[in-house]
């Protein structure tokens, strides 16, 4: 493995883990705001916390997958493919949750308020 590959894989890993740390921090803050001080939109803050938590997990998994992939490219191992698939699933969770909640709201005759992330009857 060349020096460029080694440098690239470590740079990508450190970048992805740094982004994961930032999103994790934002997720913790958003969760605190959703349940801590009184605010008019606790559901929206809770959704933001979930989105950022999933982004943190996705960045971590993608960083590890790319770290493993750089050394074995073009061959992709099972664990690397599994990490990539898991990161895509993790990325889809908050959007699937929003879709299901809004769909249930509309099915029950309500109006979905996306800004406040709540169902209005």
Task: Report on the architecture of this protein.
There is one protein chain. The protein has helices at 3-35, 42-72, 78-107; strands at residues 111-113, 118-120. It is mainly alpha-helical. A two-stranded antiparallel ribbon has the order 1-2. The mean pLDDT is 92. It has three helices and two strands, in the order αααββ. Helix 1 packs antiparallel against helix 2 (42-72). It has one domain (3-120).
Concise structural overview:
This protein is mainly alpha-helical and 121 residues long. The protein contains 3 helices and 2 strands; from the N terminus they run αααββ.
Name the features.
3 helices, single chain, two-stranded antiparallel sheet, 78% helix, mainly alpha, elongated, 121 residues
The structural domain count equals: 1
Q: Compute the CA-based radius of gyration.
A: 19 Å
Large-scale geometry = elongated
The helicity comes to over 70%
Structure summary, number of beta strands: 2
The structural class is mainly alpha
Helical stretch count? 3
Distance between the termini: 61 Å
Output the strand order for the largest sheet.
Answer: 1-2
Low-confidence stretches: none
Beta-strand proportion: under 5%
The residue-averaged pLDDT reads 92
Along the chain, the helix and strand elements come as HHHEE
Largest sheet: 2 strands, antiparallel
């Amino acid at each position: 493995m060349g020096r460029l590959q080694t440098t690239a894989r470590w740079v990508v890993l450190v970048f992805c883990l740094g982004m994961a740390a930032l999103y994790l921090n934002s997720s913790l803050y958003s969760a605190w705001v959703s349940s801590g001080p009184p605010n008019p939109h606790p559901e929206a803050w809770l959704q933001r916390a979930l989105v950022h938590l999933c982004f943190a997990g996705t960045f971590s998994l993608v960083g590890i997958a790319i770290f493993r992939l750089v050394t074995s490219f073009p061959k992709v191992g099972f664990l690397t493919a599994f990490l990539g698939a898991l990161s895509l699933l993790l990325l889809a969770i908050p959007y699937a949750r929003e879709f299901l909640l809004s769909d249930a709201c509309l099915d029950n005759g309500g109006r979905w308020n996306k800004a406040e992330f709540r169902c209005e009857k």
